[in-house]
Amino acid sequence: MSRSRVKNVDFEDDDYYDDDGYESADPEEQEHLQRCTNEVLSQLRTGQPSLTVSKEEVQEALWHYYNDVEKSVNYLRGSHTLVGRKKKKFKNNRLRSKVCSAIINIPRCVGRFSLAGLENAIALERLLALDVIMALNSNLGFIKGVCLGVWENVLTGFLVPVYPVPLSPPSAHFSAADFFRDSPWLNVPSHRKADILVEPLYPRLGLLGGAPEASGKMSKLAALAAARKQKESGQATSNTPPASTSESQQPEKAKISLKDRLAASSKAAKPSEGLAGLQSIRRSAKPSPPAQKPSSPEPTKVVPTPAPVPKDQPEELVDDKEEPQQQIPEIRAQPSMFASAIIGSQTGPKMAEPSRLHSNHVDLLQIYGVDHAEPFDFSEPSPDDVVLKAQSTAKGFKSKTPASKAGGDKKGQAGLAGDMNNLSVEEKVTVKSKNLDVLAEYNKSKRKRSANFVVIGHVDAGKSTLMGRLLADQGAIDQRTLDKYRKEAEKIGKGSFALAWVLDQGSEERARGVTIDIATNKFETENTAFTIVDAPGHRDFVPNMIAGASQADFAVLVIDSSVGKFESGLKGQTKEHALLVRSMGVQKIVVAVNKMDTVQWDKGRFDEIEQQISSFLTTAGFQGKYISFVPCSGVLGDNISRRSEDSNASWYTGRTLIEELETSEPYTHALEKPLRMTIGDVFRGGVQNPISISGRLDSGSLQVGDQILTMPSGEKAVIRSVEVDDDSSDWAVAGQNVVLNLANIDPIHLRSGDVVCRSSSPIPTITTFTAKVLAFEHLMPMLVDIHRGRLHVPGRISKLVASLDKGSGAPIKKRPKIVAPGTVARVVIEMDTAVPLEAPTRIVLRTGGSTVAAGLLE
Ligand SMILES: Nc1nc2c(ncn2[C@@H]2O[C@H](COP(=O)(O)OP(=O)(O)OP(=O)(O)O)[C@@H](O)[C@H]2O)c(=O)[nH]1
């Protein structure tokens, strides 16, 4: 901002003042002032008594009264009549009232009224008394906002003019009472002014340091103040008749403390009367109406009812009994409706009906011992104990520890405490182990080989439909259920989703027509028991897809062959999913070119898709011999379990999808390695199996009765029973999908993503590790989410160690600043929390909703 601009700023207020601080009057105003002056002078001269006042005085008065002739005349009359009389006597009072009025009227006086007349320091001291404070308070907002300087000066005692204001009329002519006669709030009777000093009705109960009555211990200062009050009150009582004006009652109001009132009340009601007694205490403590009417010759007084004083009553309360009872006048405004509801009506006829909450207040008083209530004697059986005992006796039950005995002696109490310690929420279950040689059992078992495959692909490629068809064709789902799904789907206008509903069981999935979580389903062929892991295609649910892929032996990639959809799928999740499954260690992939009915089984289209996808998959690391393509239609069931009968599809003579799945080689699993199983799901079963976990055994074996360790919680559990592929079994080995029914563990220690192992060979929990990853996006030190199956935790790439040669894995460049997409690199990853991870484990790194890298924990 330039200087000239600052200079040019107009301060509007400056326009209203001359250099000397006075308002400049224009000729019209001067003329009007002259007319008013003449009018005032003539009225003063002609009126009774006749007064001669100087023109300057008149104009000064007119200036103050905004040229109001009548007010100026009154003022001048008053001031001139009073001059000479009482001047000296009331000097301080007038000064005081003047300042009060001035402060009250600060909003209208600013700029016009000078406080310079308050040169008297003694007067100032007095001014800082109650009524000044009241006056200040009443205009605090204004003072703060507009006249802060005045406020500060008043408080500090330096009453100097803050604004360039004209001096007030000479004190000899000035009467604040007249000047502010039109200020009705000045006519406050003195007896009402002190009402604000009435002490709170109830004690603060000592929580904040509180009143001496509440805390029971009086500070030295408080003791001195109390002594002084007592002295003053003694004088007041002796000098003042009991039924005097309200002003005479004023000191009493301030003097009567809660303790006095309660003490008085305690005489009016017996403590043994319980709540009713306490309520009557409050009623009797209620101040009676002031005896001001001449028709009531005797003032209403609290009549002390003799009450027995408990032995343990505090001394001061006993002393208080001897003090003469004071009438407590009504000193408060009527409580609001809200206040009445909360604390009960304190005044008026409603006082007789305290609210329910009011009784709570009484309880509080009881708690703090204000009402001398006897503490409950815990050596006696409680009323509940008595009732329970009576009930058990009536039912014919015999309590091992009678209530009276249990609570009666200390031994009983100690015994009870001991019993409580021995109480356990869950009883320990002992499960007998058959001590089987699990591997020998597995080798001699005639179970079909099992294979898990994950179904991946872009959203709406037809994955669920295809798998639904497969399940239906293989008899894994009966026709009746399928018809039911069809009807339900048609009802909501989604008939084409009937097959997909076989896998999409969630209501949200069905409503949205989108798979959200992985769904597992089983079907069997002659040789193999297959488990389908249907993964969601939508990019929002990629973490779930990763969880699905981590359980898979091979993958089925579904591609929508319809025009435009294939292309959009390629840009979408088709490639991402293929990359992810490869990163998760999947080697075999079956590509189902779906929805071929929409392109009339066009061979050209199929070839085009085959060519593009196979080149991509090869780049992603799949070997050609593990890639196969099947043209099919999930809706029609063509080339799924049976060959297509469509003449347009006759060009395809290859395997059906199910045949392709069957050709997959048996997968070897690390049966002899330590037990590892990632928990896929935790669920509460029935009464027999309250806590169950499901998942696939990554390595090792287990059997019923084994003790397992869950990590990272470090909690142990016992295997109650085992289910393999929905069949009950005594054992399970790596590669099998199992449900373990557990005992002796709280479900809070079990989460999906946790790892089951044994105490003898626990999985380590780590916070940092090195991984060899393939970058999908640019990598640098950055925040990432680490995914491993169901487990995903926040962390960061803390260091780029080296970029590596894809083939040999040898370092190409050490400590690169950035790793380009498609590069293999070794990175250090840190996590905020310790997680169960060990090498070799496949991990995926994601950030901002997209996969940035995947690789192997080294
Ligand atoms: N014409 C035709 N439509 C199909 C075929 N397969 C599936 N669809 C339709 O494609 C739509 C999507 O099918 P879904 O099975 O839900 O697709 P999805 O891949 O499981 O979808 P997400 O799991 O949400 O990724 C549905 O309307 C199906 O009826 C097919 O072979 N031919």
TrEMBL record:
Pfam families per the UniProt record, alphabetical: GTP-eEF1A_C, GTP_EFTU, GTP_EFTU_D2, HBS1_N
Renumbered to this chain, region (Disordered) spans: 1-30, 225-324, 393-418
Q: Spell out the Low complexity composition-biased ranges.
A: 293-304
Enumerate composition-biased segments (Acidic residues). Answer: 11-29
Please list the residue ranges that the record marks as compositionally biased, kind Basic and acidic residues: 250-262
Q: Which GO terms describe its molecular function?
A: GTP binding; GTPase activity
Name a single GO cellular component.
Dom34-Hbs1 complex
Please classify the protein's predominant subcellular localization into one broad category: cytoplasm
Q: Where does the record place Polar residues bias?
A: 233-249
Q: Does the keyword GTP-binding apply?
A: yes
* Keyword field: Cytoplasm, GTP-binding, Hydrolase, Mitochondrion, Nucleotide-binding, Protein biosynthesis, Translation regulation
Q: Where is the Tr-type G domain?
A: 448-675
The catalysed reaction is: GTP + H2O = GDP + phosphate + H(+)
Q: Which InterPro entries match?
A: EFTu-like_2, G_TR_CS, GTP-eEF1A_C, HBS1-like_N, P-loop_NTPase, Small_GTP-bd, T_Tr_GTP-bd_dom, TRAFAC_GTPase_members
Entry's Gene Ontology BP terms: cytoplasmic translational termination; regulation of translation
For whether the record's keyword set contains Cytoplasm, the answer is yes
Where is the protein found, in the record's own terms? Cytoplasm
Assembly, in brief, is: Component of the Dom34-Hbs1 complex, also named Pelota-HBS1L complex, composed of dom34 and hbs1.
Q: Which family does it belong to?
A: Belongs to the TRAFAC class translation factor GTPase superfamily. Classic translation factor GTPase family. EF-Tu/EF-1A subfamily.
Q: What is this protein called?
A: Elongation factor 1 alpha-like protein
Organism, per UniProt? Penicillium angulare
